[in-house]
Amino acid sequence: MQSQISLPLAGGETTIQNRTSRAYEQPAPNLDEYWFDRHAVGDRAFEAAFVTAPANVNPGLGPLFNGTSCAGCHIKNGRGMPEKGQRVVRVSQLVSETSTEASAATHGSPAPTSPALETELPGANTPPVVGIGLQVQEQGVYGYAPEAVVQVTWQERQGTYGDGTSYSLRSPQLQLSLPDGTPLSEGVVFSNRIPQPVFGVGLLEAVPESKILQLADPEDSDRNGVSGRTNRVWDIVQQTETLGRFGWKANTPTLLQQSASAYFNDMGVTNPLFPDADGNEDINREILEAAAAYVQTIAVPARTLLDDPQVQQGERLFAENCAVCHVAELHTGEHEVPALVNQTIHAYTDLLLHDMGRELADDRPDFQADGNEWRTPPLWGIGLAQTVLPYSGFLHDGRARTLEEAILWHGGEAEASKEAFRTMSAEDRAALIQFLRSL
Fold this sequence. Notes:
This protein is an alpha+beta fold.
């Protein structure tokens, strides 16, 4: 195990001193013997690659899928790159009689896909696309064609900082077609997504709902231009609407459900929360819970360069311009994992939805999140993103190649923060970025 460092601790007592390419893969150092063993079992489940049935080991892949293992998309537990095998493309059908008829005419009979991809959870507000469902499966086992072919091209645009220094931003242009080359019908909305880091998420699960609600300001009552909202989503286990915490639009309530959804939608592996139409399950509850326990118990890498004057200057600038959404400090409450209980953490998120403007919009609602809204992503460990996986991207679709680009894409509620960064002196911009790299 790695030893923790002096305050401030990014992940409370789950913090480790590790700034290597394996920084996101370590067990929390404060796990007791039982949960350390559970972490190890879950690690094996997370790494397990599935194959087509029948097989002696890990049967159940497909018939349509995006990847063969959890670790295949969440490489070294970090964020991914917007390419086949890591990205997923969420889709939905605009609700209108014309678009529904057009979709049926284009796609014909539904393709042989997983049943959950043809239906939606109560309140999800994302009508499935006929023949595809809610997520494009870009791969198929032998005898099954992928649901669609996704092509991504990049469009560059130029801009300048306030001091005249130039920069370039890129945005992905998606083109989807059926395997025979037929374009998808009009009225289909796509949302390109890359994997998010999975370390520290157990701590986010342990933040009391009441604390998150205290941060919400849906009517912008303080008139600061920021109006964070919660997403209310469907809890499959409890069979009720509850607070969403995980995913790019906070569309999932728990790590157990997040894990189950990933098995089913990304790998085509049925499980207790998402069985097939006949009620069959490729993995049992034990495996599903092990995978969830693994991500609950991963350590958070410690910050670095705490005494560096440039980092300290950048932290002050960040607090002045960014911390309304990227809240520096949260406190956990009760949780089944004792190591996560009553921790003071520095995740730099409020776990709320914010309107990020038209340039980042995907126009795809998700439960109560609209097409302009995204959950504030945690920033802890972000300075290690390129160390863990070189050339991995930032933002929901990986468009940002650097931290500077990620900031410059901010809009909507974050427009003032973006402009503050764009018009800073070069010295201040460098300091703010150096602070982020220290996380």
